[in-house]
Amino acid sequence: MKEGIPLSEFGLNEHLCFQLYQASRAMTRLYKEVLKPYQLTYPQYIVMVLLWEHDRLSFKEISKALHLKTGTLSPLLKRLEKDGWIRRKHNSNDDRMIEVYLSKKGIAYREEGILIPCETLKRLKYNQETYDFYLETAKKLSMHLHEIEKMP
């Protein structure tokens, strides 16, 4: 915080939360355009990225990795399954556990899908060094905020 300036004098543009909110919304709009040919929303895309990395995960593992609650993740997975990207099935050892894995379509788009950040980088008009700087800064902030949430 700027020393000696009363908190009440910080305008909207001086709030980190507002700048992050605006950046997040703008990035989501940018991804919307990049993802249009695939007919994926940004939340669906991040599920696919996770599955392209791991092939098969439990519902619980996806929820934990993406910090999404059941009420948000369930409809997302249902839509991905309906659109042919994934398959869901109950674990043969524990019927309460749902496994999520790539369908043939999901596998077919893996190589193309993992290159989507390259298209995003071009649209951002950033070089790799600038992209990496913002990525590392965002990772550190995210990790810090998650640590704070865990504190009593």
In a nutshell, what does this entry contain?
With 152 residues, the protein is mostly helical. It has helices at 16-35, 42-54, 59-66, 70-82, 104-108, 110-113, 116-124, 128-150; strands at 56-58, 86-90, 98-102. The chain has a domain at 37-110: Winged helix-like DNA-binding domain superfamily/Winged helix DNA-binding domain (Arc Repressor Mutant, subunit A), CATH 1.10.10.10.
List keywords for this structure.
62% helix, 8 helices, Arc Repressor Mutant, subunit A, 152 residues, three-stranded antiparallel β-sheet, mainly alpha
Provide a descriptive summary of the structure in words.
The structure is a single chain. By secondary structure, this protein is mainly alpha-helical. The protein has a domain at 37-110: Arc Repressor Mutant, subunit A (Orthogonal Bundle), CATH 1.10.10.10. The chain contains eight helices and three strands, in the order ααβααββαααα. The protein has helices at residues 16-35, 42-54, 59-66, 70-82, 104-108, 110-113, 116-124, 128-150, and strands spanning 56-58, 86-90, 98-102. A three-stranded antiparallel β-sheet has the order 1-3-2. Strand 2 (86-90) and strand 3 (98-102) form a beta hairpin. Helix 1 (16-35) packs across helix 7 (116-124). The protein starts with 15 loop residues before the first helix and ends with a helix. The mean pLDDT is 91. It holds the Pfam family Staph_reg_Sar_Rot. One of its GO terms (molecular function) is DNA-binding transcription factor activity. It is found in: Cytoplasm. One of its GO terms (biological process) is response to stress. Residues 13-152 form the HTH marR-type domain.
